Amino acid sequence: MAHVVVVGNEKGGAGKSTVAMHLASALARLGHPVAALDLDLRQRSLARYVENRARYLAREGLDLPSPTVAVLPEGPEEGRVAAALARVGAEFVVVDCPGSHTPLAQAAHALADTLVTPLNDSFVDFDLLARVDSDGETILGPSVYAEMVWGARQRRAAAGGRAIDWVVLRNRVGSQAMVNKGRMERAVARLARRIGFRVGPGFSERVVFRELFPRGLTLLDLRDVGVASLNISQVAARHELREMVRALRLPGVAPRL
Question: Residues 156-182: what's their mean pLDDT?
Answer without folding.
Answer: 81
